[in-house]
Amino acid sequence: MRKLIFFDINGTIIKRDSRTDMPYEKAIDIFLNTENGMAGVNNSARSDKDVFMEVLEKYNQEFSEDKWNSFLKIYEEQLKKFKTTDVWRENVDAVSFIEKLSKTNHKIALITGELSIGAQYKLQKLGVWKYFKTGGFGEDGLRRFDIASTALKKAKELFGSDYDEIIVIGDTILDIKTARHIGAKIISITTGSNTREELETENPNHIIDTFKEIEEYFLT
Question: Is 3.40.50.1000 the CATH number for 3-17+89-219?
Answer without folding.
Answer: yes
